[in-house]
Amino acid sequence: MRRLILLFVVAGVMVGLVAVSHLSLRAQSESKPAAERAKAVARGVTELAKLVQSDSVQDALLKPYPFRFARPTPLADVAQQLSRELGLPVVLDLAALDRLAVKPEDAVKLELQGVRLKTGLKLLLDQVGLTYKVVAEDNLLILTDKQGSEDPIERVMAEIHELHRDIHDIQDALDEVRELTGLSGAEGARVRKPTIIEEMPENQDAKPQEGATSKPSTRPEPGSKPQGLPSARPRTSL
Question: What pLDDT score does 48 carry?
Fold first, then answer.
C-alpha cells in the first residue's frame, strides 16, 4: 500500500513538471511574437520620425497632410501642432499679427484630408487674413501676413517702378500745362534745353552744295584794276 502511494506521488510530480514546462514554453512562444511586434512598431515609428525630420519645408508643403482642426483651435496651438507633427520649426510672426490686429489666441478650424500642406494652410490661415512664408536657408515655416511674405528686394523694386510711373505722370501733366500756357517749344509739348550746336548761328560754316563750283565775280569795282590779268607790254617790231 505504501509503495502504491509512492508511485502515485511520483506520477503526480512528473505530470506537474510536464505541465509547468509546457506552460512556460507556451508563454515564451506567445511572448516572443508580441515582443517582436513591439520592436517592429518601435522601429517603424523611429524610421517615420527620421523620414519626417529629414524633409525640408518645401518638400513638406507638397505632401498630403491631415488637417485635424475640427474644433476652433488657437493660432498658437496650430503652430505648435504643425511643428510637432512635421518635425520642422513653425513660428508665428507677431509683428504681422499686430498689423492685422490678430491675437495668437484667435481660433481657426479646418478638417480636411488628402490635400497638400500648402493648400490646406492657405484655407486655414485665410480665415484670419494670414498666409505663410518659407525661409529655405533656415528650413523655417513662418505664419505671417502678405506684407511679411513678400521678398524685400521685390518690394523695393515694385516701389521704384511705382515711383517711376508717378514721375512720368507728373511730366505729362507739366507738358500739358506748358502747352496750354504757350510755353511749349517748337518741337512740341515738351520743352527741352537746346544744345550747344543748336545755339550756333545758322550758315556760319556753310559748305557749298555738292556738285556746285564757286565762280569769282567778273564785274570789277569802279576805279579798280581787274585782278588776275597780265600787265600790258608794248609790242616791238622786229
Answer: 46
